[in-house]
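Journal club prep — side note

Before the paper discussion, L.F. wants everyone to see what a predicted structure for a comparable chain looks like in token form. Sequence:
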Amino acid sequence: MKVAESAELIICHECNNRVRIPILKHRQKATCPRCGFVLTSQNDMANERILAFSFTALIFLGLSLCFNFLGFSASGQEQNINIIQGIQVLIDQDYLFLAIIQLLAIAILPGTMLVGLIYVLLPLQWGLRPYYGRKVLSIVYALLPWSMAEIFLV
């Protein structure tokens, strides 16, 4: 593959090899010649898809807070509880720390991650640079292992 004049020089995350990345076509990947680590890939319309999925996930996250999360049935009596009520019950039963963990894991961390993605990608769609975009993306990547958004949104 020929390296274009506007090739970008990056450093491999795995072996610290300096690699010139050529301009990639749709679905092409650039790998490190030393260790084989995938350095980058080109997917057309990737930002649009991530933005659409982020908006959709944020809407569903907000709606999921109102739907029943747990249901109990005994002796003909039913008791249903949604996420907000579950947090309130934990606070009423003096499990404040557990209520905070539940609120963080179910609503705040996934919501922060989704809002961060939208904050960065929406200006990029309009050809603008978001203020503090790198900082917001570093926060999003730091929250990624902790968010469990895919579990609670399903």
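L.F.'s comment for the group: The CA atoms of residues 53 and 114 lie 9 Å apart. Keep this in mind when we get to the figures.
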